[in-house]
Amino acid sequence: MDYYLEAFMNRLKNRVRFVSLLALLFVALLLACSSAIKIGPPGAIEIPKEKIIYDDGDTITFDDVTIRILGIDTPEISHPEHGYSEDQAYGREASARAEELMRAAKKVSYMPYQEDQYGRMLGHVFIDGKLLGITLLEEGLAYETISHYGDNGFPALAAELQEAAQRGPEPKFEPPYIWRREHRQQPEETDQPPPEETSAESE
Nearest-CA neighbor of 198 among 174, 177, 180? Predict the structure, then answer.
């Protein structure tokens, strides 16, 4: 009788160990999956993807907040309300590529900096923890603006963008600030080349 009882208890203990091991593995798997999809650096704010309204390659809007992406300047698309009646070369390609990257990402987030003179929030945008601007620079769909504006208090992120610009090809379109100055129907002083000490992004 004691033999059967001991055997039963041993089998029970083995099953408990097995179930406990499965539970630990399941928890580890959940943690691995959650950590694999990054929001961004500490302080980054997740953006509900379904609320994103896509504009040109460096501007998005959600919940009445317009974000002008720091560190890059993509070619313009037609905005008659802003004085631009035509697209700049590669403007639609840059816009479509930025939208494609954000739609394909599991998570989109941004790191806010400050509002510019147009009321837009300047900030870095991340797709699954990676700077969106890196891909656009590597594909020749944007110019980096850090050389003009500085790092805006994000030296590590600015360095990543500058390195991406060096890896990428020379854009096939003229710098957007020059195009804006030449094509705007009602030119403004804000379209002049930005001084190095300026911290606000160009339009």
Answer: 177
What pLDDT, in 10s, does the model give residues 19-38? 454 555 444 444 444 444 56
CA atoms within a 13 Å half-sphere pointing along the CA-CB vector of 86: 7
**Annotated catalytic sites, by residue?**
68, 76, 120
Residue extents of the structural domains in the chain: 1-36, 45-191
CATH number of 45-191: 2.40.50.90
E strands, 63-120, in order: 65-69, 72-73, 108-115
pTM above 0.85, yes or no: no
Nearest CA to 68 out of 127, 118, 131 is that of 118
CB 182 within 8 A of CB 190: no
